[in-house]
Amino acid sequence: MPTPLIKRSLVDQALEQLRQRINNGAWTIGQRLPTEPELASELGISRNTVREAMRVLAFTGLIEIRQGDGSYLRGNVDPLDTIKALSSCSLEHARETRHIIEAEAIGLAALRRTEQDLQGLREALKESQAHYHHDLDCYIACDLVFHRRLVDAAHNPTLSELYRYFSSVVGAAVRHSLSHGPRRQSVFDLHVDMLEAVEQRDPERAKTLCRTLIDEP
Fold it and tell me: Is the pLDDT score of 1 beyond 90?
């Protein structure tokens, strides 16, 4: 007999109730959650609906499902909510955040970069250069690779993860800048100079150049 379809609206309702409990601190990070039958009874829904909702929470990283052991709370901030907040970020807020995350990360990259980092950065910059005066979407994709590699060269996994969440906002800012005026070579040259500062292990110059680039209209 085929498995009956679970109504998505019921799963959404279950997700909302579970997220409310997580947001309200009903469980602490690392705590084992109630079993599926216990949650089904508590929420007044079927075990199948609970199971589907738990799979969604596991996919977003809020919980960890351990086979034969149960489900454990991994975090209390839903990445989907973070993405929604970032999608409505203003250009000014994006600029401020880039100053805090990106410029400081690139300062660290100038101190910590390896030869392997530099090789990857040169390759990414070469790709960006090939598209700068041509297809905008291709250029933005290449430019984001370059910026991510700059942040990764700081060798701080937390900064790298934060920047990956934030990179969609960076891409939107680049698109806005390049869609509202000619593509000036001087702007691209800031990328070249920034890489040179990282190569020369000059964190202050790298940060100054990064801030200049971020503040480009």
Answer: no
Q: What is the largest CA-CA distance in the chain?
A: 68
Q: Are residues 140 and 202 in contact, defined by beta-carbon separation less than 8 angstroms?
A: no
Q: What is the pLDDT of residues 132-155, one digit of tens each?
A: 988 888 898 999 999 999 999 999
Residue range 89-214 in CATH 1.20.120.530? yes
The predicted model scores a pTM of 0.65
Identify the architecture of domain 8-76 in CATH. Answer: Orthogonal Bundle (1.10)
Say how far residue 191 (Cα) sits from the centre of its chain: 22
Handedness of CA 163, 80, 76, 5 (dihedral sign): negative
Domain positions in the chain: 8-76, 89-214
CB 107 within 8 Å of CB 198: no
